[in-house]
């Protein structure tokens, strides 16, 4: 079984690619945006990203990771459509997958700045319920984003866990508080 980690910034085509993999691989697609919009439907496009929702999103993602890894153990391919901007997030999930006997594949979707802005603006025009981002946020996020290197893309070794953590599972349980440490 394979867990696909869809990596990219907003507007990179992550959900489109995740949906393609969902069909071509008969995979379970887990997209936190879908869950957040359903659970907090009254918040609207700007409220979903409010500071008070950040912790809840992390908890939703943790439960989706738990569900997805269990599904992979049971014989399903899984597509995690999260974005995974940080190398540590990807490393933790690659390590967890390997510890369960499951293959992890990083799927990176780069997007140029102008194309990203065009796509995100197009979303708002087509669907008023879409998440909204300012140019300043897109610029800030691009600076924070850690693109995967060739080792990640080719399934190379997972780097050592950051200092202060015994395992990647422990790191992941702190990153996603609803994810059990077991």
TrEMBL record:
Gene3D superfamilies the record matches: P-loop containing nucleotide triphosphate hydrolases (3.40.50.300)
InterPro entries recorded: P-loop_NTPase (IPR027417)
Name of the molecule in the record: AAA family ATPase
Species for this entry: Microlunatus ginsengisoli
């Amino acid at each position: 079984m394979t867990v696909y980690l869809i990596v990219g910034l907003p507007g990179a085509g992550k959900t489109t690619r995740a949906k393609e993999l969902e069909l071509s691989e008969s995979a379970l697609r887990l997209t936190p945006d879908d869950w957040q919009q359903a659970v907090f439907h009254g918040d609207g496009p700007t409220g979903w990203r409010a500071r008070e929702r950040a912790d809840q999103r992390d908890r939703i993602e943790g439960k989706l990771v738990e569900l997805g890894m269990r599904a992979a153990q049971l014989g399903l391919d899984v597509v995690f459509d999260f974005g995974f901007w940080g190398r540590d997030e990807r490393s933790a999930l690659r390590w967890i997958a390997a510890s369960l006997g499951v293959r992890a594949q990083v799927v990176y979707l780069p997007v140029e700045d102008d194309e990203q802005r065009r796509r995100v603006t197009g979303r708002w025009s087509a669907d008023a319920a879409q998440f909204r981002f300012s140019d300043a946020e897109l610029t800030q996020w691009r600076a924070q984003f850690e693109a995967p290197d060739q080792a990640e893309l080719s399934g190379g070794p997972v780097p050592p866990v950051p200092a202060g953590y015994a395992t990647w599972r422990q790191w992941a349980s702190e990153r996603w508080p609803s994810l059990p440490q077991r």
